[in-house]
Amino acid sequence: MNSRQMNIFGLFFGAGFGGILAAGTLHEYDTIHAMLRLDEFYVYGFMGSGIMVATAALWLFERKQTTTLTGEEIKLQRSKPQTHHIKGAAVFGAGWAIAGTCPAPALVMLASGGLLALIVIPGIFLGIHLASEKGDLEFGDGEHRQVTSSFQN
Amino acid sequence: MDNQLIYAALLPERVSWFILGPLLGLLTAAFFLVMNQPLGASGAYTQTLNFLRRNGYRVIWRIWYFAGMALGGVVVTQFLQDNRGFRSGFDAFRAASPLWLVIPLIFIGSVLIGYGAKVAGGCTSGHGICGVAQRSKSSIVATCTFMSSAIIVTGAIRLISGGNL
Q1: ipTM of the complex
Q2: N or C: which terminal CB in chain A sees fewer CB atoms within 10 Å?
Q3: Which of A81, A88, A131 sits opposite B137 (nearest CB)?
């Protein structure tokens, strides 16, 4: 796949993700807040069923040794828990509770005309910037992996 | 001309979770089939930040992916739903507190979101959906931690605000 195709696929998948979040109003503070107050089951059902389907599909890919469209082996990644996972997630959870949004829904909030997302998005960038001053923190298993093969070019 | 007819929403105010959740699961799986990468969002922020400051590791398609999330939001909220127009995005928070309090609080919350996601190596999508779906122990631990932390802090906010939030 050349880089232009990768960019188009990136845009397309991003749009699918953002569109799904928007259709479920996950970009609204009220939705996340109602979930965390345990008032509403909606987001738990949303995330839970998403995880179940994705887990089953990835399990099947692994079992059948499915390859990607370009014929590569699908690379799943698993790592052991370390203290930074717990510390970071505890801080993240506090921010999630206060701001009632998280990185992807914040972009959708802006897209929906939610103007306070203009406060949220720079805040997230600042937080990432402050953490990256702390030295080399590796991406987790669900985030982008550095690929050294020629595939990226 | 009846504008209401033209702008009739194609999607309900909120589509059922049992449709959207599995759809998100399939999208996550398809992302592996096409890009061989997880569908995390905070990583895309990091890539975009590195791109903006022209420093560090960055992959250009992740920036297109970042823009795509907003584009998908525009398409659904502005064209398929019936709730166009500018809003705060924080209705319940605004109803309970004045704006001068809401703005600094959500800014602090957002900094914690970015900082925590970077330190933990992922957010709700990266650890919560993609990491758990890969059956990664670190993601399962991170997800349980941020769920508990968020529910506890929400409880604390509820107490401090006297039940208003």
Answers
A1: 0.94
A2: C
A3: A81
